[in-house]
Design a protein that fits this description.
321 residues, alpha/beta, ten-stranded mixed sheet, 39% helix, 21% strand, Bug_dom1, signal, BUG, Tripartite tricarboxylate transporter substrate binding protein
């Protein structure tokens, strides 16, 4: 499975094609974060809001949370209610790709206007500080003994967290269909269940565990990167523990269906300015997000590849037909 991620999910950031300097000014923008507050999409939407307003690229930016079903409830609201509206955008990503397939969603990403892939982030597995699991080796042993007794808290069914849990389990020779996965629509809810000891382990993007780990409330057992990360040098990779899984989550922003070519160019140019700003670069460093910016036709093509690869992965671990 590794080659699927390298090509589809770990592509290097590509510079966007230059946009025309003359485009309509955007004064107001509403960004839908299709998840509860506290998670990656919410953080992404509010980071975009902060940078656009700080750099005066858009005068007024609002964020609206519409949680549920791996982002597909928010996506349906966006597709059905924002057609032709150039002042509404939605944040999404790899989680949404999987959720659309898993939930057999009547709406999908072919119904929106993709603008850009923005960031990438690696997955991490964490346990409460008082957990008897001290390492990934301990987790592997527990899974091999009885996978049903190991409960996982993560994001929506079929999303990056769920896929990573399935791939992790499969890589150690355990049937991924036996993963005891508990899905939450927002990072805040998932984190509360982990801290409260209601689940065995939590799985999420590394940044969502960072504050609690630094406070000594969580212990991060491993990360899904190829090598140890500069901002988490003490956290071993899955591969170091003999689990051959490498995966990166990514996040995107899209515009409404039915907008004009000129409106798409205006939004694309605004996002292009944002990602090249110091404020955005600083935000990425603060959050521990990698810059995987890709826009235009190059992003359209990569998105199609990612959807096809995800369909294959979900079938392989029993989450899709």
């Amino acid at each position: 499975m590794k080659h699927l991620f390298r090509g589809a999910l770990l592509a290097a950031a590509v510079a966007a094609a230059p946009f025309s300097a003359a485009y309509a000014e955007i004064n107001e923008l509403k960004i839908i974060a299709p998840a509860a507050p506290g998670g990656g999409w919410d953080q992404t939407a509010r980071s975009i809001q902060h940078v656009l307003q700080t750099d005066k690229l858009v005068q007024n930016v609002q964020v609206l949370n519409v949680p549920g079903a791996g982002g597909t409830i928010g996506l349906a609201q966006f597709v059905n209610g924002s057609k032709g509206d150039p002042n509404v955008m939605i944040v999404g990503g790899y989680v949404m790709v999987g959720a659309i397939i898993t939930n057999k969603s009547p709406v999908n990403l072919s119904m929106v206007t993709p603008i850009a892939r923005l960031t990438g982030e690696y997955e991490a597995i964490a346990v409460p500080a008082n957990s008897p699991l001290k390492s990934l080796a301990d987790l592997v042993a527990a899974l091999k003994a009885d996978p049903q007794k190991v409960s996982w808290a993560g994001g929506s069914a079929g999303g990056t967290d769920h896929i990573t849990a399935g791939l992790f389990t499969k890589a150690i020779g355990v049937d991924p269909r036996k993963v005891n996965y508990i899905a939450f629509s927002g990072g805040g809810e998932s984190l509360a269940s982990i801290l409260g000891g209601k689940v065995t382990v939590g799985i999420s993007s590394l940044s969502e565990f960072d504050a609690q780990a630094k406070a000594g409330k969580l212990r991060i057992l491993g990360v899904s990167s190829a090598a140890r990360l500069p901002d988490a040098p003490d956290v071993p990779t899955f591969k170091e523990s003999g689990v051959d899984v490498e995966i990166q989550n990514w996040r995107m922003i899209a515009a409404a269906p039915g907008i004009t070519a000129e409106q798409k160019q205006a939004l694309s140019a605004t996002i292009d300015k944002m990602v090249k700003s110091k404020a955005w670069t600083d935000m990425l460093a603060q959050k521990g997000w990698a810059n995987t910016y890709l826009s235009g036709e190059a992003f359209d093509a990569q998105l199609a590849k990612d959807i096809a690869a995800t369909q294959t992965i979900l079938k392989d671990i029993g989450l899709a037909q």
